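Task 17 of the worksheet. Students: predict the tertiary structure of the chain below and write it out as structure tokens. Keep your answer in the requested format; marks are given for formatting as well as content.
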Amino acid sequence: MSDLTKRYDFVLLFDVQDGNPNGDPDAGNLPRIDAETGMGLVTDVCLKRKVRNYVQLSGKDIFIKEKAVLNTLIDEAHEQESVRKKEKGEKTEAARAWMCLKYYDIRTFGAVMSTGKNAGQVRGPVQMTFARSVEPVVALEHSITRMAVTTEAEAEKQSGDNRTMGRKYTVPYGLYLAHGFVSAHLANLTGFSEEDMNLFWEALQNMFEHDRSAARGMMSTQGLYVFEHSTALGNAPAHKLFERIKIERKPESEGPARSFEDYTVTVDESGLDGVTLHKMLC
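Model answer:
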């Protein structure tokens, strides 16, 4: 059971400067772009990875972690005394409950755990969409040089010049917007608690601070808008709440946007019957 009794919908606003927010392995690691509109994309999987990494740094255990062997972790659930004592038909549910209790990301995002000893499937109470840029972005390609080679054969071929050429792809600037949802009903099935949710909000605000790399440039959360409903079923359609957030270019901003200061974010807070808006980092 969970102490979460209300529905939440949220909007995450983040930006990137001179970096690749989410490379596409099927396109040579180019930044993901909607081919029809030119809008930049960041997958929900990418955002969840950053949340997981932050949560792990905070001391919570996660299921989908670097170099994990998932079936080994699932098998561990079946080795627990509380699971082994169950009848054959009850073991899957008992293993599922144990996994939800142990791993933050399972009780948050859900998981498929039927790949080894069956621990069932979990539909997570927290779901996120792809992030999409507010305006079209341009993917730039840069040649880079390493003053070294990897093998003696390469050194001989270059007569000692010893250079390795490479490519790096960046977006000069992009402001991205993602949407998300928290279901109290599904939280009650996984044990996702109020404490878990507060850690999730914390992760969304700070995850880029612990995800620095040369490839990602400057990435920052610029705003988190959380719509808290007064009931578990909710008091308004999510898309209608999301429409209240408007992002527009400032009149004095000319040419391509190059910083968050080129935009104005406005929120219509009138007539929010049964819904409370929490603005974080805004």
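Marker's comment: Residues 88-102 form the longest helix (15 residues). The chain has a mean pLDDT of 95.
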